[in-house]
Automatic annotation (TrEMBL):
<dbReference type="InterPro" id="IPR045851">
    <property type="entry name" value="AMP-bd_C_sf"/>
</dbReference>
<comment type="pathway">
    <text>Aromatic compound metabolism; phenylacetate degradation.</text>
</comment>
<keyword id="KW-0547">Nucleotide-binding</keyword>
<dbReference type="Pfam" id="PF00501">
    <property type="entry name" value="AMP-binding"/>
</dbReference>
<comment type="similarity">
    <text>Belongs to the phenylacetyl-CoA ligase family.</text>
</comment>
<dbReference type="Pfam" id="PF14535">
    <property type="entry name" value="AMP-binding_C_2"/>
</dbReference>
<dbReference type="InterPro" id="IPR042099">
    <property type="entry name" value="ANL_N_sf"/>
</dbReference>
<dbReference type="InterPro" id="IPR011880">
    <property type="entry name" value="PA_CoA_ligase"/>
</dbReference>
<keyword id="KW-0436">Ligase</keyword>
<feature type="region of interest" description="Disordered">
    <location>
        <begin position="1"/>
        <end position="21"/>
    </location>
</feature>
<comment type="function">
    <text>Catalyzes the activation of phenylacetic acid (PA) to phenylacetyl-CoA (PA-CoA).</text>
</comment>
<dbReference type="InterPro" id="IPR028154">
    <property type="entry name" value="AMP-dep_Lig_C"/>
</dbReference>
<dbReference type="GO" id="GO:0016874">
    <property type="term" value="F:ligase activity"/>
</dbReference>
<protein>
    <recommendedName>
        <fullName>Phenylacetate-coenzyme A ligase</fullName>
        <ecNumber>6.2.1.30</ecNumber>
    </recommendedName>
</protein>
<feature type="domain" description="AMP-dependent ligase C-terminal">
    <location>
        <begin position="344"/>
        <end position="437"/>
    </location>
</feature>
<dbReference type="InterPro" id="IPR051414">
    <property type="entry name" value="Adenylate-forming_Reductase"/>
</dbReference>
<dbReference type="InterPro" id="IPR000873">
    <property type="entry name" value="AMP-dep_synth/lig_dom"/>
</dbReference>
Length: 439
């Protein structure tokens, strides 16, 4: 059977909450916050203990700013109560579990009631719609399926929007390429570094990623820069938009970016109340526009209420644009626990990505290695040259990179420009930092 090429424009209405004014959203937030605090206090012993110890009670919340009186929740709280100690509903009401493996310590387990799953799908769909994905499109989902929230979270979002989902999952790059060519998807959902891996593998096979059917990519789950957006957009000739989320707060879809404005993720504030705190002095809640650590309170979650969760993601809050009532978050510069402190200078992998991609001849494939010979921290940047850059030009590009890092970050480092294809490729969230210092 041959397919007709004419596409029917399917209805694609916004949720009414998407167009609410700031005042309307804040009044919803206040009502939901009151309910959430009381709900968590009544049902989760850890919240009750924390609030009793701090001398606060849910009824102390009279206005939104009173939220600052309540203690934070940390990943450690979920670990201490592993696996289900922070759940607020009996197990038979939990429709699904996810978990993050975490690099250290125990996994953190998160749970969802059916209503939580429905809300998650709805919010994820809002993100995809905002990114330009349309009902009726074919969507290739290359986020990993399984305990990671990326695969199933993005899957439900795409279904909710009314697309045809191709549940490819992460990895098996050759197969990804075959499916992209044979099924001709309109959009792809993948981490930015994995999309890069796919494009790179296509080029090595002599295929032109610009000739695929892909029009839109929705990328998230790891920090990426405007320079990387440009790289991916040129590589595939598509629009690449951001999507943000984290398991403890929900999963992908807490916030999403508009393909029209491409100016950062809008947080769905009818379901989440964000705050920015000073990452080094957590008693300070910062104003909009100021840089600090993102903290989220989920306003509607049943199975795992989460109040003032410290994300350790560094960003800032900005006024809404494409969805005026919902604030945006500035691009995440990094995680406070991913920050390399190099001889007193703070450095994030995203800064290296930004600088390197402005230097002709250097590719986005790089790793950072930190060592401590003679009790002095040393940073080495290992980066691949591009195919069209010969080794002489690569030497100069390496020197340029060292110079730019010195100027913009303030630290000196060793640069090794290596041949294309020699560094490990991403199949999901890419590990950039190799810290070889003895702990
Ligand atoms: O990564 C959820 C997700 C899946 C988001 C797919 C987007 C797309 P976790 O595994 O719990 O959940 O990791 C959450 O990933 O705290 C950030 O540090 C990072 N992160 C997620 N999205 C972005 C993004 C998923 N757009 C952690 N930009 C978060 C930068 C991101 N970092």
């Amino acid at each position: 059977m041959t397919q007709t090429s004419t596409r029917i424009e399917l209805p694609n209405p916004l949720d009414p909450e998407e167009t609410m004014s700031r005042d309307q959203i804040e009044s919803i937030q206040l009502a939901r916050l009151k309910e959430t605090l009381a709900y968590a206090y009544d049902r989760v012993p850890l919240y009750r203990e924390k609030y009793d110890t701090a001398g606060v009670h849910p009824t102390d919340l009279k206005e939104l700013s009173d939220l600052a009186k309540f203690p934070f929740t940390e990943k450690e709280d979920l670990r201490k109560t592993y696996p289900f100690g922070m759940f607020a509903v009996p197990q038979h009401e939990v429709a699904r579990l996810h978990a993050s493996s975490g690099t250290t310590g125990r996994a953190t387990v998160v749970g969802y009631t059916q209503k939580d799953l429905d809300d998650w799908a709805k919010l994820g769909a809002r993100c995809l719609r905002l990114a330009g994905v349309k009902p009726g499109w074919k969507v290739h989902n290359a986020y990993g399926y399984g305990l990671f929230t990326g695969g199933l979270g993005a899957h439900a979002a795409a279904e909710h929007l009314g697309t045809t989902v191709i549940p490819m999952s992460g990895g098996q790059t050759e197969k990804q390429i075959t499916l992209i060519q044979d099924f001709e998807p309109d959009a792809i959902l993948a981490t930015p570094t994995y999309l890069l891996t796919i494009g790179d593998a296509m080029q090595r096979q002599g295929l032109d990623p610009r000739k695929t059917s892909l029009k839109t990519a929705v990328c998230g789950a790891e920090p990426w820069t405007e320079e990387m957006r440009h790289e991916l957009e040129v590589m595939f000739d598509l629009d690449a938009c951001d999507i943000y989320g984290l398991s403890e707060v929900m999963g992908p879809g807490v916030a999403g970016e508009s393909h029209e404005t491409k100016d950062g993720n809008h947080i769905w504030e009818d379901h989440f109340r964000p705050e920015i705190i000073d990452a080094f002095d957590d008693t300070q809640v910062l104003g909009d526009g100021q840089h600090g650590e993102l903290v989220f309170t989920a306003l509607t979650k049943q199975a795992l209420p989460i109040i003032r969760y410290r994300t350790h993601d560094l960003s800032r809050l900005l006024p809404g644009t494409a969805r005026e009532g919902h604030r945006r978050m500035g691009r995440i510069t990094g995680r406070s626990d991913d920050m390399i402190i190099l001889r007193g200078v703070n450095l994030f992998p995203s800064q290296i990505e930004e600088i390197a991609l402005r230097i002709p001849g250097l590719s986005p494939h790089f790793q950072l290695e930190i060592t401590r010979p003679d009790r002095m921290d040393q940073l080495a940047v290992r980066i691949e040259r591009r195919e069209d850059c010969d080794s002489d030009r690569a030497i100069q590009a390496g020197k340029d990179l060292a110079k730019q890092i010195k100027i913009h970050v303030g630290s000196s480092c060793a640069i090794e420009v290596v041949v294309p294809g020699s560094l490990a490729r991403s199949s999901g969230k890419l590990r950039r930092i190799y810290d070889l210092r003895e702990k």
